[in-house]
Each structure stands twice: as C-alpha cells, then as structure tokens.
C-alpha cells in the first residue's frame, strides 16, 4: 500500500474499533437495540467523515486521541440519518452498504429507535469528553458545531427539502442548497471539529472549511453519478432508484457530462484550498482524489 | 386559584413561552420542519417533567432561570418520543393531546424528522448553556443525566421492551422494568436535574430521587387506569387501545382494583420521601396528589 492507503487504513481501523467499544452488546431485556445499532454502525461504510476529523486534527498538530470521540459521534449521527432515510416513509430502500437495511432486518419500529439511540449516544459520547478538564472550551464548541450541522439548519433541514421536493422538478439552486444541508453540513463539521480540537487558528479553520464544503459537494455529485451509471454490486445498493422515483439529482439537472466536468472542477477547488499547508495537506489532497474516482 | 394551582400555572406559562422562543418558525425552504416540531411541542400537554425540574430547583433555593433550558430540553425529548411512539410502525395512534398525531398531519417522513429534530434541538439548547461560564460542572452533569435517561438504558430501552412485548403476556417484573425505563427514567432525570442545577447535596438528591421514581410509577399506573376507564374526550386520545392491541398494562396484570390501591400506596411513598423538606416540599406533595386524581 502507498502512504495514503496505509494512513486511511490506520484511521479506519481506529474508528471501527472505537465504535465497536462505544456501542457494546449489553445483555439486558432491551438487547435488541444494541444489536440493531451495531448492525448499521459496524456494517462497513467508508468512514469519510471521521477520517476527515482525524486527518485534519493531525494536520494541525492535534492529538487524535482527543478527536476520536467526536469523530465517532459524527459517524453515529451519519449512520442514524441513513437508517431513518432508508425507512419506507422516506426513501424506502432495501439495501445499504451491501446488506439489508435496518428496518428490513429488525422491523420499522426498532429501526426508528435504533436511529434515535445512535443520535442520543452521539451526544452521550461527546459530553463524556467534558469530564476531563482539559481544553473544555474547544470541546464545547465542537459539540455545538456538530449539533448545529445535524439539526434543522443542517442535515435534517436538507432531508426535509428532499422529502418536499420528491416528484417535483427542482432547479439547480434548490438542489445545491438541499445537498449543502443534507450532506455538506456534517462533512464540513467533521473537518471543522478536527481543526477545533487541534486548536487551529480561525484563519486556518476558514481554509479547511472551503476544502470541506467543496469536498462535500463533490461527494454528492459522485454519488449521483454512481447512482446513475455505477455498478450496484460495488455500490452495495440498487442503482437507478433516483430516476425511478423522479428524484432530481446533479445528473438529471446538469446532465452526465456536465456533472463529471463540475465534479472535476470542484475537486480542484477543494485541493487548492489546502495548498498553503504544503506537505502536511498531502493526505487531504489524496483523499479528495480518491473520492473523485471512487466506485462505491 | 389556590397556591398550588397558581404556581403550576406560573411554571407552565414560563415553560410554554420558552418553548415557543426556542423553536421559532423560521422562513427557510425547510420551514415545514419548524411547523411540524411546533405542532407537537406546543399542542398542550401537562408539562409535568419541566414543572418538576423548576419546582425542585426552587425548593432547593436554585434559580429557575438557570433550570429552564434543561426543563425545556426534557420536554422536547418527551415530545419527540411521543411523535415516534405514535407512528404506524409503533403504537399507530391517530390522536394525541386532543389533536391529530404528527404523522397524520405532516406524513410519516416529516414526523420521523420532526422527532429527530426535537432530540437534536434538546442537545443544542442544553449545550448552549455551557457558553456562560458559571456552574459549568453542574450543567455538564445535568446534560449527562438527561442524555442517559433518554437513551438505551432509559427511555429508548423501555420502548424497545414495549415493542418486543406486544402481543405477549408479560409478568409484573417485566412490566415494571419496562415503565421504569420508558417513563420513569426521564421523570427521575427531570427531578434530579432540578436538584443538580440548584446545587443540592448528594443526600438531598437521593431523597428527591425516591420521590421521582415513585411519582413516575404512579403516573404510569394512572395512565393505564385512564386508558381503561377514562373519558376519551378528556384524555384527548382513544381509550381501550391497549386492550385491543393485547398490550400488558398494570390494569391487565394487576386488575383494576389492585391497580388503584397500588397507585394510592406509591403516591404516599413519593410524598413521604420529601417530608423532610417540610413546607418547602408543599408543591411537590400537591403535585403528587394532583397526578393521582387527574382525568387526563
């Protein structure tokens, strides 16, 4: 493996083993909830958000052992949103990350609760970091950034626009706003929190924020392209669903060729935003490239 | 009005006006989410939990302006749990607090998100109290008590046992454990947080905890009795649903007469637990009495 791949692998191993510890199987009368939470949380996934948190924290000379709780909380929030998004009342998806969706295995009631429980757990994990008295202001700020990005002015807000737009043809601005909220906000939070925990300056946080918002947009465009032309075996979910559901995507709004060109352009904008950090930003640059070319 | 009724009214007015401010209608493309959140949050309800927080805080000489954020966060968590509980995948209820349930008005997708958003907002509200530098340790502890009581080892855990028990005949111990988690944990948290914010001693916190756990149990038994024999107009929801669904309740497990006797007994246990606080506990004593005799 090259240096990037090794680093990505190291981060992912750390994230997975911490998630495994944070949500253990507990033998209680309600043990089903731990099983359902772990089913979706440990089902794989690219771990892009927590990887970003750790990588940005390290780039700014921070200690990733201080960032890991926040990184894992972000992944819990991302996973809860996927479980709820997949419900019949929302996207009604049967497969996710190559396996059956949570409600297909545990039923809708438990799936709703498993999502709720992961959101609640994310805040339990984050506030538990406040018991150690160091850098408390930074940690409080990190919790607030994450809470805000996950709420009505972030991820949930975007999901609402998504539901309200279903079956309608929406314009480019609406589409972009929807994704900026639905996926962009939490990706930006992942990056900002890594920088906050490392004690980065406001100016540096602004630079990585530009990286993050462009990366988030690129991520979504790549998703839409893969949804249209990707290999469902590699993706671990069915393709063509968006079109069937009359969902507006970058591909339906801009066309496939223009989407590909736009993806390339904003990936470069993301990379340019961290150029000032020189060699230290190598991982972030390679990550943007990796996401540009991903097949799942 | 007598002193108790006036005090209850004062607390309720304060809680309602704060909730109204904390979840404003914001004109954004996702405005529907604010409408849906407000629909359930401001639909009335007895506000028992936040009232307990404020009353206990005052009893211990605390400042209720410091407790109100936590009181409102608890009510948001309670409301989110009702919205999700009412979903077709769970209790499938059409009416709540005298009006249509959230999903009956906004659809299931938005109802799931409105619940998610209220839980997220509760944590946003609580962590925003940490921006003021006073009593930060107490506030952190309060957030942790609430998060824990709402999670898998509290409210969500109880709801899981409830779902898993549906259609089965369960024994008294299982029923009691289910309710201790499902409703008891958050009611206990409401009381403990009021005491924590006021800076009460560990010994005093233990005393009000006994009050709280017995009050929570009494509350549930009264609910089960009202579900069986109550007036659906006063209750604002249909009665007899539990029996139809083969749900085990205190009435089905203990019988109506024994449930009434048990309710009386544990209400007295609750009242005894705060006797040491003398006149200061008058409101808590009257509240227990009020809940014992409530018709909705």
Short description:
The structure is a homodimer of 296-residue chains. Chain A has a single domain (3-293), classed as Farnesyl Diphosphate Synthase, CATH 1.10.600.
Observed structural traits:
Farnesyl Diphosphate Synthase, 1% strand, globular, 296 residues, two-stranded antiparallel sheet, mainly alpha, homodimer
Please render the helix and strand layout as text:
The structure is a homodimer of 296-residue chains.
Chain A: H1 3-22, H2 31-41, H3 48-59, H4 64-85, E1 95-96, E2 99-100, H5 102-106, H6 108-128, H7 136-150, H8 155-165, H9 172-197, H10 202-229, H11 232-235, H12 241-244, H13 250-254, H14 256-273, H15 282-293
Overview of the structural elements:
- The structure is a homodimer of 296-residue chains.
- By secondary structure, chain A is an all-alpha fold.
- Helices cover 72% and strands 1% of the residues of chain A.
- A two-stranded antiparallel sheet of chain A has the order 1-2.
- In chain A, a hairpin with a 2-residue loop joins strand 1 and strand 2.
- The longest helix of chain A is centred in the last third of the chain and has 28 residues.
- Chain A is globular and about 50 Å long.
- The model of chain A has no long low-confidence stretch (mean pLDDT 93).
- At the A-B interface, helix 2, helix 6, helix 7, helix 8 and helix 9 of A face helix 2, helix 6, helix 7, helix 8 and helix 9 of B.
Strand content of chain A: under 5%
CATH architecture of chain A: Orthogonal Bundle
Q: What is the CATH class of chain A?
A: Mainly Alpha
Helix fraction of chain A, binned, reads over 70%
Instruction: Give the terminus-to-terminus CA distance of chain A.
Output: 19 Å
State the secondary-structure class of chain A.
mainly alpha
CATH superfamily of chain A: Farnesyl Diphosphate Synthase
Along the chain, the helix and strand elements of chain A come as: HHHHEEHHHHHHHHHHH
Stated plainly, the CATH topology of chain A is called: Farnesyl Diphosphate Synthase
Low-confidence stretches of chain A: none
- Our Rg estimate of chain A from Cα atoms comes to 18 Å
Largest sheet of chain A: 2 strands, antiparallel
SS element count, helices of chain A: 15
The number of strands of chain A is 2
Oligomer: homodimer
């Amino acid at each position: 493996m090259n240096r990037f791949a090794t680093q990505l692998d190291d981060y992912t191993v750390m994230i997975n083993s911490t998630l495994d510890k944070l949500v253990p199987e507990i033998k209680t009368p309600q043990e089903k909830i731990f099983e359902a939470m772990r089913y979706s949380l440990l089902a794989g996934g690219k771990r892009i958000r927590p990887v970003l948190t750790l990588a940005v924290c390290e780039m700014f000379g921070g200690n990733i052992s201080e960032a890991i709780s926040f990184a894992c909380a972000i992944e819990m929030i991302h996973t809860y949103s996927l479980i709820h998004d997949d419900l019949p009342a929302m996207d009604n998806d049967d497969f996710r990350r190559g396996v059956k969706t949570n409600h297909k295995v545990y039923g809708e009631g438990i799936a709703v609760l498993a999502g709720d429980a992961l959101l609640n757990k994310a805040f339990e994990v984050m506030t538990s970091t406040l018991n150690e008295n160091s850098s408390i202001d930074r940690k409080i700020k990190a919790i607030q950034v994450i809470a805000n990005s996950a709420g009505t002015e972030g991820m949930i807000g975007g999901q609402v626009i998504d539901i309200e737009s279903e079956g309608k043809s929406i314009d480019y601005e609406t589409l972009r706003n929807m994704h900026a909220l639905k996926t962009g906000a939490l990706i930006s939070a992942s990056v900002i929190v890594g920088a906050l925990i490392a004690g980065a300056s406001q100016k540096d946080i602004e630079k990585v924020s530009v990286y993050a918002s462009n990366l988030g947009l690129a991520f979504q465009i790549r998703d839409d392209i893969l949804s249209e032309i990707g290999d469902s075996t590699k993706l671990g979910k069915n393709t063509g669903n968006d079109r069937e559901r009359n969902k507006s995507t970058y591909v339906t709004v801009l066309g496939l060729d223009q989407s590909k060109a736009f993806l390339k352009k904003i990936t470069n904008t993301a990379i340019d935003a961290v150029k000032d950090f020189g060699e230290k930003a190598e991982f972030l640059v390679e990550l943007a490239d990796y996401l540009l070319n991903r097949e799942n």
